[in-house]
Amino acid sequence: MTFKISKEFSIGVLVIVTIAILFFGVNYLKGINLFNPSNYYYAKYKDIQGLVQSCEVTSHGHKVGLVKEIIYDYNNPDADVLVVLQVDNELKIPKGSKALLQLSLMGTPSIVLDMHATNGMKDLYQKGDTIPTATPAGMLDAITEGVMPKLEQVIPHLDQLIVNLNTVVSDPNIGKSLANINKMSSELAVTSTELKKLVGNDLPPILANAKDITGNFSKVSENLAGVDFKATMGKVDNTMNGLNATVDKINNGKGSVGLLLNDPKLYNDLDNTVNSANNLLTDLKENPKRYVNITVFGRKEKSEKK
What we know:
The protein is of the alpha/beta class and 306 residues long. It has helices spanning 7-30, 139-169, 172-201, 203-226, 229-251, 255-262, 264-286, 288-305; strands spanning 38-45, 56-59, 62-71, 81-88, 98-103, 109-114, 133-134.
């Protein structure tokens, strides 16, 4: 016996399967795991700050659930917004805990379960209980509260600073200073060009000469290294000792030089001789005939004897 599947039945099965896949797919994309048992809790907020369904519920940074539903009472605008929290079935929330509504750095809201057990894990919230809530100050609020008062104090001083800055900028000396700086930069550019030429043209010969000089110094140092300074200094020492002995003999009146320098009688005789020579020359200049006549008389006596 064969069963013939009608076309309408096949289309119906295909539609049901498509709807099931779509349902499970949408819930999966929302982060809802339909096969994982979960518990539901409630939380009330005055302002949910953009919280939407499927936002994360975390505890100590770990995802433990998501926002299942947000219920807003249109008939009573002053009423709190009711948020349904779907958390893992294994999560136990002790009394004393709070559901904090926080904003991330990018502005994304989320629910953070701040776990604090007042009576230990014996006293727990049951499924369907309403958990106390709190909205801590966000990062932007902290910046606003901390910076804005100080900024209000700074603004008057900033206004005065701008006025002073305008006064300085409008000073004509600023323009002159900038012109001088521009001129100085141009002169520095010219100097840099000249320095490049000097380094490129004159410096290599100077370095070559310096290299030759260092080579000569090296040769001189090698020659000095070969000199026997000890023998030379010994000879110099002997020469100085001999010179000292000679000076001692002269000072003690020994030898011809010592007698000449230390004998006062010789000095006096030399002095008398010089004086007599001086007197003779003086008399010769004053009475030259006296000496001429003596010569003539001498000749006469010789002739008479002959």
